[in-house]
Amino acid sequence: MSDQQPIYPHQSIPGIEYRMVADYEPQDKDRCIRCRANDTVIVKLPLNFAFTGTDKHPEGWLYCTNLQTDETGYIPAEYVEYVQTVVPRPAPRERPLLPPVPEVVDEAEVPPVIPPRCGSDSRPQVNSNYVPVPINVNVSNGSNSPRPHRPSLSQSLQDQEWYWGSVTREEVNAQLSDEQDGTFLVRNSANSDREYTLTLRKGGSNKLIRIMSRNGMYGFAEPLIFNSVIQLVNHYRNEPLTRYNPDLDITLRYPAPKQQATTELSDESKEALFRALLEDDKTFIKISDDYQDIFATFNARQQDIQNMKTAISAYEETISMFKEQCSTLTTYMDQAQGSHEEHRLKENFRRMQTRLLFIVNQCEDLRTQLGQEIQENRERDRRLNSIKADMYQLKKLRDSRISHLKAMRISEEVINNQLRIDEEDENEGVYHLPDSVNLREKYPDHCVETNWFFPRYGRREADEVLRGTPNGTFLIRERNGPPPYACSLVANGKVHHCLIEQTDDGYGFAEPFNLHLTLSDLVLHYAHNSLIPHNETLDTKLSIPVGCVHRR
């Protein structure tokens, strides 16, 4: 612990004070800040970026402010030493509070996952709670116009129009599917009626945020500063949630009245949902048949392509042999000038040249045919990936419609009867996606992000660590400019570097294949599938995370 007198107590914002134990010169000057030894830095509370470890022993990256330079950004946690945690008590006029309301007291639970900026060694996975429910059939009886902001005067949680009590996630998703951004509700957690979850509509999908509780105080992350769930909700009706997640640049604008939770579907709405579901099944069956036909052709042509490559190699060896014989005959003809052997040697040379020309032409024709076959099969592969994406979207849509029906108290038996799903008839069991193998079970090393994600590596470091490793060894690193990531891998004994694009649809090497929600999904996909569709020279998969190679 430093003997230096803390200089932060006079500030009115809570924070964790640290002292720099060494100079830090950032490579990424856009997101990280420069600090000198003995500088004082403050991690403000509530956290904008949730670091790992504890306050006294932080790990990973800290998002902080340097009090000497007044710069804010990221620094590595290993460069600091803990000084103190300051949670000042502001004057009432600076932070007016509602009267304390008795609420459920429970143990604290894990705060919401906050995505770090690029550059963190501990990139969290995309929060699986953030799930879109793409239901296109509008069965809501409410108006699309914004509901007015009418905070309840009651201090009872049960009296709040946005408190839904014990309802399922499916019911919430179904009811909010057609609502506009800013619509919100609070429900009891599925784990316990003493816990709460805030559901907020943002970007056309539902965002789920845990409400923490400890000693009668509530909040999304430590320190908990609200006396009740009602006080928390009223506060964030006027303040955006960016303090806890930079992507949530929105307030709690439109409460979802809990009466909607008991809304029953009319017969017409049920019919519409079932018709849409059956139409999805028919579409899926059709594109599934197309997939199987194209896939069979693709495999047959791949074998033809391999046979052509083998034939071309044989032609090249034959051509090399004929050229060598022609060269030998030329030497003999020079030596036999004026002798009786000269005419016979010239005739042999002429015949050899004719046969050589014929073989060269045959080889060139085969090369041309091979190029056409490769191009056509590449198009087939693109088509297969496109169909896979369509099938994936159809499955999501189908599951959303089924969740919607279940939320309306329609049993699985009724749904299955409508779909005419016969468990004994495999042809009726639709949505059998290709590549149904459990990739996480098959590739456990790929599921550990630290085995392959090295954000601080540049191209030179990647070359060094991959040099001499087997084909298929790979890592993923960050880049300064778009695209934000690159995959460095070994193929054909050489290190290659491929850019990874990040679009609204997901990660990938090129359109229209940017379909992977996370980098982990991309890694698992190409652990199972070759990179040839993206680059003909990369005849490999992402087989071996580089971290596993260096542990062996």
Plain-language structure description:
The chain is of the alpha+beta class and 552 residues long. It contains nine helices and 18 strands. β11 (205-214) and β12 form a beta hairpin. The longest helix is centred in the middle third of the chain and has 69 residues, at 267-335. The chain is flat. Mean pLDDT is 75; it is low at 1-10, 89-151 and 422-436.
Net shape: flat
Topology order in helix (H) and strand (E) letters: EEEEEEEEHEEEEHEHHHHHEEEEHEH
User: So how many helices?
Assistant: 9
Low-confidence stretches: 1-10, 89-151, 422-436
Q: How far from one another are the termini?
A: 39 Å
Secondary-structure content class: alpha+beta
Largest sheet: 6 strands, mixed
The oligomeric state of the chains shown is: single chain
Rounded radius of gyration (Å): 33 Å
Q: Estimate the mean pLDDT confidence.
A: 75
Helix content, binned percent: 25-40%
How many runs of DSSP E, i.e. beta strands? 18
* Amount of beta strand: 15-25%
Concise account of the structure shown:
With 552 residues, the protein is α+β, with helices and mostly antiparallel strands. The protein has helices spanning 169-176, 229-236, 267-335, 341-407, 412-419, 439-442, 459-466, 519-528, 546-549, and strands at residues 15-20, 40-44, 52-53, 58-59, 61-66, 71-76, 80-86, 163-165, 183-188, 196-202, 205-214, 217-219, 254-255, 473-478, 485-491, 494-502, 507-508, 544-545.
